[in-house]
TrEMBL record:
<keyword id="KW-0496">Mitochondrion</keyword>
<protein>
    <recommendedName>
        <fullName>Protein arginine methyltransferase NDUFAF7</fullName>
        <ecNumber>2.1.1.320</ecNumber>
    </recommendedName>
</protein>
<dbReference type="GO" id="GO:0032981">
    <property type="term" value="P:mitochondrial respiratory chain complex I assembly"/>
</dbReference>
<dbReference type="InterPro" id="IPR029063">
    <property type="entry name" value="SAM-dependent_MTases_sf"/>
</dbReference>
<comment type="similarity">
    <text>Belongs to the NDUFAF7 family.</text>
</comment>
<comment type="function">
    <text>Arginine methyltransferase involved in the assembly or stability of mitochondrial NADH:ubiquinone oxidoreductase complex (complex I). Acts by mediating symmetric dimethylation of 'Arg-118' of NDUFS2 after it assembles into the complex I, stabilizing the early intermediate complex.</text>
</comment>
<dbReference type="InterPro" id="IPR038375">
    <property type="entry name" value="NDUFAF7_sf"/>
</dbReference>
<dbReference type="GO" id="GO:0005739">
    <property type="term" value="C:mitochondrion"/>
</dbReference>
<dbReference type="InterPro" id="IPR003788">
    <property type="entry name" value="NDUFAF7"/>
</dbReference>
<dbReference type="Pfam" id="PF02636">
    <property type="entry name" value="Methyltransf_28"/>
</dbReference>
<dbReference type="GO" id="GO:0032259">
    <property type="term" value="P:methylation"/>
</dbReference>
<keyword id="KW-0809">Transit peptide</keyword>
<dbReference type="GO" id="GO:0035243">
    <property type="term" value="F:protein-arginine omega-N symmetric methyltransferase activity"/>
</dbReference>
<keyword id="KW-0489">Methyltransferase</keyword>
<keyword id="KW-0808">Transferase</keyword>
Length: 454
């Protein structure tokens, strides 16, 4: 069976793909072109923007120091001045760039992984592709292109795309990339789907603000650079026990923020520190743990899998909280709302919070995952089909960016949640004599085991 999987995966990888475009429609909704895709200046745009720093200092003066988690939540997702709400932060002109924007190979191999897991689950009739924090829609577009090219493989399934996105700016970019300008948005907030459309191939695409609102059913969840932006609590070991790191106003400079330690235990420091913790400084993403539990429950109940790709470590790092602005490191407390805030994902914490109802694989480095998925073979296919020297050089340099241990190759990791039955040893057929009477091995999981071409 392992050899078969290797042949199947290498066959899927060796196929060449073409990039997509899109139109679409829906019912009981109103056209979104005017609000979602057209921009025009108005008198309101000339008014000074509300100040995130002023908002935070007023809040702290009124109620006292706030947790780092609350600070991150306000800075990144405040509905008026939040970084993700008002900025287009991705790409060469933004504050950071992600793997799907660097190379189409990344998204194509994620698409192959999704199809491989769908096949490993017995080819269910329904397949929901769910992406958390879809960026510009590049990853989803590359995945859908793989599905289109391999329609003979997945043609028997009813496929739909579901995007969980809180940023109106990014939702516009995603809709433009995936469904064109003919999508439609909801009239009010009562509908959990706030925007919807169809790809040029007729696949339905829906946007949600919360994972809770995505319909139940067999789903493959993808989260690429999503968990690193979720709010973290920071804790410091002291002579008096664990104390939470808080954000306060500097008493000597009213327009400046600073870190302080809570004088006594907080609810978070009393409940979130794992027993036996040996580090002196710990970051805990309680919101990330809650989302992992949600994913685990959905996978257990409805079937499917989750693939997480992010900066991360396996319970070894301490202080990783940082900011990015213009592709450079930025002081996390300076000019809040103008820069991205991030912290490395603690995969050991995600594994613990997932519980025993699902199987957890990884983390494995991005370099190893993509190599196991056959990125070298994919690169050769693209190079053979390309005669333009500049494009060939771009393919090689983007491959280096993804794979080089000193760049993204060892900094990013892949982690997966699967149904327990996915890794169960298949039952040997009754009434047949098998050589040496060995039970069949479990079906390998693409990306987390070495790809076999035999």
């Amino acid at each position: 069976m392992g050899a078969f999987v290797g042949v199947k995966t290498s066959y899927l990888i060796s196929r060449s793909f073409i990039r997509p475009v899109s139109p679409s429609a829906a019912v009981r909704w109103r056209p979104a072109q005017l609000r979602l895709f057209c921009s025009s200046s108005s008198p309101d745009e000339q008014k000074p923007r509300p100040s995130m720093l002023r908002h935070l200092t007023s809040k702290i003066k009124a109620t006292g120091p706030i947790t780092v988690a609350e600070y991150m939540r306000e800075v990144l997702t405040n509905p008026v001045t939040g970084y993700y709400v008002k900025n287009s932060m991705l790409g060469a002109d933004g504050d950071f760039i992600t793997s799907p924007e660097i190379s189409q190979m990344f998204g194509e191999l994620v698409g192959i992984w999704i199809i491989s897991e769908w096949m490993g689950a017995g080819r269910p009739k329904q397949l929901q592709l769910v992406e958390l924090g879809p960026g510009k829609g590049s990853l989803a577009a590359d995945v859908l292109r793989v599905f289109r090219q391999l329609s003979s493989v997945v043609g028997g399934a009813s496929v739909s795309l579901h995007l969980v996105e809180v940023s109106p700016v990014l939702a516009r970019l995603q809709a433009d990339a995936l469904t064109g300008s003919s999508g439609e948005e909801a009239d009010g907030d009562e509908d959990p789907v706030y925007h919807r459309g169809r790809t040029r191939d007729g696949l339905p695409v829906s946007w949600y603000r919360r994972l809770d609102d995505v319909p139940a059913g067999f789903s493959v969840f993808v989260a690429q650079e999503f968990f690193d932006a979720l709010p973290i609590h920071k804790f410091q070991r002291t002579d008096r026990g664990w104390r939470e790191v808080m954000v306060d106003v500097d008493p000597e400079k009213e327009e400046q923020l600073r870190f302080v330690l809570a004088p006594s235990p907080t609810l978070a420091s009393s409940t979130l520190i794992q027993a036996g913790e040996r580090r002196n400084h710990v970051e805990v993403c309680a919101e990330g743990g809650a989302i992992i539990q949600q994913l685990a429950r959905r996978i257990t109940d409805g079937g499917g899998a989750a693939l997480i790709a992010d900066y991360g470590h396996d319970g070894t790092k301490t202080d990783t909280f940082r900011g990015f602005k213009g592709h450079q490191l930025h002081d996390v407390l300076s000019s809040p709302g103008s820069a991205d805030l991030t912290a490395d994902v603690d995969f050991s914490y995600l594994r613990k919070t997932a519980g025993g109802g699902v199987a957890c694989l990884g983390p494995v480095s991005q370099r190893n995952f993509l190599k196991n998925m056959g990125i070298d073979a994919r690169l050769q296919v693209l190079l053979r089909s390309c005669a333009d020297p500049s494009v060939r050089q771009q393919l090689i340099s983007s491959y280096d960016m993804l794979m080089n241990p000193k760049k993204m190759g060892e900094r990013f990791h892949f982690f997966s949640l699967l149904q327990l039955s996915r890794l169960a040893r298949p039952t040997a057929p009754n009434g047949l004599k098998l050589e040496k009477n060995k039970n069949p091995a479990p079906l390998p999981v693409a990306g987390f085991t070495e790809l076999q071409y035999s």
